[in-house]
Amino acid sequence: MLDPFPSSPAWLRDAVGPWALYFNLPTITDHIHEVILAFVFYQFIHSYLSPWLSPVLFPQHYPNFNKRTKLNWDVHVVSLVQSTVVCAAALWVLFTDKERKEMNAGERIYGYTGACGLIQALATGYFIYDLYISLVYVKMFGLGMVLHGVSALWVFALGFRPFVNYYTPVFILYELSSPFLNMHWFFDKVNMTGGKAQWYNGMALLSVFFSCRLVWGTWRSVHVYSDMWQALSQTWSATASSASTLDPININAHVFQIRDGNLCVDEACAKAQAEISKYSHYNAAGTPTWLVVTYILSNIVLNSLNYYWFSKMIETVLKRFRGPAAAPAKKEEKEGVKEEEKDVVLDAAAKLEQEHDGLLLGEKQKSSVLNSSTPNLVEDLRKRKVGPVPS
After folding, report:
1. At what angle do helices 178-189 and 196-208 cross, to 10 degrees?
2. How many Cα atoms sit within 13 Å of 320 on the Cβ side?
3. Residue 223: per-residue pLDDT
4. Region Disordered: what ranges (predicted)?
5. At what angle do helices 67-96 and 114-136 cross, to 10 degrees?
6. Is-contact 33 9, C-beta < 8 A?
7. Which pTM value belongs to this model?
8. Closest by alpha carbon to 35, among 106, 143, 132?
9. Cis, peptide link before residue 18, omega less than 30° from 0
C-alpha cells in the first residue's frame, strides 16, 4: 500500500539524498518530511500544548506541580498521544495493506511499502524527540534514558535500508499497553489513586501488556527470526557461489515475486505492486550478518525485559496472598476480599510502572522522577484507602 501522504518535496530529497546513501538508508528520502513533522508535532505538544491545556483541564493539580513533575507530566502527555496515534496507524496498515499481506519470506525482510514506511517515520520522529528531551534534561533523567533513546532510534533507523519494513507495524503494537501505563501515572498525579477508574485501567493494562507484549510479541518474534535465518542463509549461499564464479552477488531473483501489474484495476494498485521491490538493488548483496545479529539481540533484550516486568507484576500479586490470614467476621471478610482484589490489580499496575520506568531512568532517579509527590505508589494507595496514620 502506498504512503497516504505526499512524498517529500524535491529540494528536501536532494538535501537528504547524499546522507541517506552514505548511511545506506535510501528509503528515508521518501519519509524525511514525515520524520521532521512527527518530531515537530511531539515537541509542540511538549512545549506548548500540554503546558497550556493541562492547567485548563486540571487547574487544581498542574499549576501546583514542581518543575520536575510538570516535565514528567508533559513527557507522559506526548507518550500518550504518540502511542495512541502510532498504534492506530499500525492497526490500519495491518488490516488494509494488501501488498504487505502478499509478501513472501524474503520480501518480509527486503521488501518495502510506503504505508509501513510511514509507521517507521512516525516512530523515528518520536525517538528523536525522546533523545532530544533526554539530552536536554540529562541531569534529571540520567544516562539510562539517553542510552535508551539512542538504541531505539538506531534500531528503527535501520528499517530505512529497507530492512524488515514488513514487521514495523507488527512490533509497534508493543506500544498498545503504553496508553494504559500513562493513564495509571496520571491517575496518581490527580489524586485518583485507588479509585475505580484506576482499577479498571489497571485491569486493562495487565491484560493488554500480557496479550500484546508476551503472547503477540513472542509469537511474531519467532516469525521474524525464521525469516532472518532464511535471508542470512540465502546471503551466505550467494556469497559462496559468487566467490567461485566471480560474479557480483545478486539475490533479488530468489527474493522478489514476479507480480503482474496488468491485474490491477487502477494506477495506485500498479504502483503499490511495483513499490515492493523499489529498493531491491540496495539489498542485492543480501543481509549483513552484523545486522541480523544486532536486530535479534535487541529483540531478545526487549522481550526479556517484558517478561521481567510481567514477572514483577505476578510477584506483586502473589505477595498479596502469601501473608498470614486473620479470622475476621464473615461480612467483613467478604468486603475485605473485594478490596483485596482491587488492591492486587492496582499494586501490580504500580509495580509495572516502577519497574518499566525505573530500568530506564535508573534506580537513583526512579523515586523522585516517577513519584515526586509520593514516595511510593503502593503505600500511597493504602494511605488513601485507610486514611492517615495517627501520630
Report:
1. 160
2. 21
3. 94
4. 357-391
5. 170
6. yes
7. 0.81
8. 132
9. no
CB count in 10 Å sphere of residue 91: 14
Cα–Cα distance measured from residue 133 to residue 201, given in angstroms and rounded to the nearest whole number: 27
pLDDT along the chain (391 residues), means of 10: 90 94 93 97 97 95 93 95 96 93 90 94 95 91 82 87 93 92 91 84 89 93 93 82 66 75 71 85 84 89 87 71 50 52 63 61 44 46 45 37
**Count helices and strands in the chain by DSSP H and E runs:** 19, 0
Instruction: Give the DSSP letter string of 41-105.
Output: HHHHIIIIIHHHHHHHH-TTTGGGS-HHHHHHHHHHHHHHHHHHHHHHHHHHHHHH-HHHHT--H
Q: Which residue do the cell numbers 490470614 mark? A: 325
Residue pair 161/25 in contact by the 8 Å Cβ criterion: yes
Q: Which residues contact 240 (CB under 8 A, 6 or more apart)?
A: none
Please calculate the CA angle 313-299-45 and round it to the nearest 5 degrees.
Answer: 75
C-alpha cell of residue 352: 509495572
